[in-house]
Amino acid sequence: MPTLRDAVFLLGAPRVRDLPPDTGAEVAFVGRSNAGKSSALNALTGQTGLARVSKTPGRTQQLNVFALSPGHRLVDLPGYGYAKIPQALRHTFLTLTADYLERRRSLKGLVLLADIRQGLKAEDHALLHNRNDLPTLVLLSKADKINRGERQRLVRELAKIAPETAYLLPFSAHAGDGLEETQAIVLEWLGLAPSAPID
Ligand SMILES: Nc1nc2c(ncn2[C@@H]2O[C@H](COP(=O)(O)OP(=O)(O)O)[C@@H](O)[C@H]2O)c(=O)[nH]1
Ligand SMILES: [Mg+2]
């Protein structure tokens, strides 16, 4: 059975029609630029160089596909909300993402990254409401930047405004908070959850 560690970069698709065949299972990662999406992908797959971690946000302009096997994929969607990106390009990002979320049948779950200190912004809400039927995990990233009490307070605050279908989890790619739980959820969505031990 493939694991997250098996993920290799497959291709970058500028349009939905450039993606691999819409079969098998896929989990997509979305988030504002600089939210920690690349760091999360690297931590989840245990590969430091899988998705490039950039200090200059807004560079990814395509759907980057990583394959665990031909039928099990992770898709890194373009970051959004970066102020210095021209309006026209920003529009392309959002339509590409919306197009992907609406049309992709093999998409089984969505992981949305949001800096825990910044919470959910307008674009995050738009994405979360784009496909209400889609299982969604909201990773509140960079949780290592704040203490536990503050984390819990922020999770409670955000839970009030997030859609009911979204599951909120404090996450830190650096410290490992929420890492194992996220790995388990992603594998489950991909149909790769280890079966219960027989005893
Ligand atoms: N403290 C802390 N910083 C992080 C964490 N994850 C990412 N960062 C930092 O946030 C910045 C953006 O990260 P990156 O993964 O490139 O974000 P992306 O634009 O969403 O792909 C980088 O400087 C990272 O080192 C984390 O868990 N904790
Ligand atoms: Mg990135």
Automatic annotation (TrEMBL):
> Which cofactors, if any, are listed as required?
Mg(2+)
A Pfam family of the record is MMR_HSR1
GO terms for MF: GTP binding; metal ion binding
* PROSITE patterns linked: G_ENGB
Q: Per UniProt, which keywords does this protein have?
A: Cell cycle, Cell division, GTP-binding, Magnesium, Metal-binding, Nucleotide-binding, Septation
Entry's Gene Ontology BP terms? division septum assembly
> May I have one GO cellular component term?
cytosol
Gene3D superfamilies according to UniProt: P-loop containing nucleotide triphosphate hydrolases
Domain called EngB-type G: residue spans: 23-192
- Family in the record: Belongs to the TRAFAC class TrmE-Era-EngA-EngB-Septin-like GTPase superfamily. EngB GTPase family.
Its annotated function is as follows:
Necessary for normal cell division and for the maintenance of normal septation.
Query: Which PANTHER family does the record cross-reference, listed alphabetically?
Result: ENGB-TYPE G DOMAIN-CONTAINING PROTEIN, MSS1/TRME-RELATED GTP-BINDING PROTEIN
Q: What is this protein called?
A: Probable GTP-binding protein EngB
Gene symbol? ysxC
